[in-house]
Amino acid sequence: MDCLRWRQDGLEKLGPEIGPEPLGSALDHSPTTSRWEHGTAGPGSAKCPARMQRANLYVDGFNLFYGALKGKPSLKWLDLAAFGRALLLPDQELHRVRYFTARVGGRAVDPRLPQRQDTYLRAVATLPEVSVHEGYFQTKPARLPLASSPAHAPEIVEVLRTEEKGSDVNLATHLLLDAFREDAEVSVVVSDDYDLKEPLRVVGSELGQTLGVASPRCSPRLGRAVEASFYRPIHEATLRKCQLPATVETDGGAISRPADWSPQKK
Predict the structure, then answer these.
(1) Cβ(143)–Cβ(168) below 8 Å
(2) Whose CA is closest to 140, among 162, 109, 158?
(3) Do 18 and 142 lie in a common domain?
(4) Least confident of 73-87, 158-172, 214-228, 234-248
(5) Fewest beta carbons within 10 Å, which of 101, 130, 227, 266?
(6) Are residues 146 and 178 in the same domain?
(7) Are residues 55 and 140 in the same domain?
(8) Residues 215-245 pLDDT 10s
(9) Which residue range is the domain that position 146 belongs to?
C-alpha cells in the first residue's frame, strides 16, 4: 500500500493524474525544507495515516477562467467535484468545494454569455459537495490614455471599465472561517492571486492547516510565498478529464451543456 512520508533532502510530489513536479519547478525553498516523498510502507518507513484527511477546495473562478479556461470553450463545463479530487494527495478526500464567481452582464459582442454562465451555475449546484458564492461586477466610466498615442502627449479617451468585486474577499473569509471551525484538515486554493497571500499564510502557519495551492497558470510563485505543503499546476489534460456529463439530470429537468462549449470547440 502506498503512503506519503516526509523527508528533509529533496522534493518529489505525486498525486492522482498530475504526477511528480521536477525539482526547482515547485516549492524548492532550501535543502532543509520538509518535502513530500511518495513511497511504499514497509520496515523502517513511516506509517500510512490511520484515516483520510478531509480537504476543502476554494476556487477563484475569475482567476481560473483567465489562467486556464479563456479561449478554451470545450473545458468550461467543468465538474468542480471531480476537479477537486484530481488535485488532492492520496491520503486526502474531498469534503467540500466552494466556488467564488460573479455573474456577468450581456455584452454586444456576446449577448449569450449570461445564459451560458447561468446554465453552468445551475449544473454545478447539483453537485452535493459544491456551493457557489457570488460577488458582483461593477462597470463605470473611466478616462484613460489611448495605447497608440505618444507618451509625451497621450490622447485621453473615456472607456467603460468592468471590475469584479467581492470574490477574493469572500474566498479569504470562508477559507479562514472554515479553518477556525476545523471544518477540514486540508485547504486547497485554486488561484494565482497574490492578494490572497496573507490569508493563505495564516491558514497554513497559524491555524495548522495542510495548505495546497493549485495554479491556473502553472506557476509555483504563490505556493512558494505562502510555504504551501504542496503545489499543483493545473494542466489542460486534467481539466479535460473533469468535465460534467453533456446532460445533467435534475428534479426540475435536464440541464444541457451549451452548444458553444461542445467538445468540438477548441
Answers:
(1) no
(2) 162
(3) no
(4) 158-172
(5) 266
(6) no
(7) no
(8) 999 999 999 999 999 999 999 999 999 999 9
(9) 136-165
Which grid cell is 42?
514497509
* Other Cβ atoms within 10 Å of 9 Cβ, number: 9
pLDDT at 25 > cutoff 50: no
143 plus 34 within the same structural domain: no
Confidence label for 16 from pLDDT (cuts 50, 70 and 90): very low
* 166 has pLDDT over 80: no
- Which class for 161: exposed (0-12), middle (13-18), buried (19 or more C-beta within 10 A)? exposed
Average pLDDT over the chain, rounded to an integer: 80
pLDDT for the residue 112: 87
Q: Is residue 67 domain-shared with residue 80, that is, in the same domain?
A: yes
Q: What grid cell was written down for 51?
A: 484515516
Whole-number Å distance between alpha carbons of 127 and 83: 12
This model's pTM is above 0.90: no
- pLDDT-derived band at 32 (thresholds 50, 70, 90) equals very low
CA angle 42, 47, 49 (to 5 degrees): 140
Q: Residue 234: inside a domain, yes or no?
A: yes
Residues in Cβ contact with 218 at an 8 Å cutoff, skipping those fewer than 6 apart: 233, 234, 235
Q: Which residues contact 116 (CB under 8 A, 6 or more apart)?
A: 258, 260, 261
31 vs 9: CA distance, rounded Å: 6
The β-bridge relationship of strands 35-40 and 2-7 is: antiparallel
d(CA 259, CA 116): 9
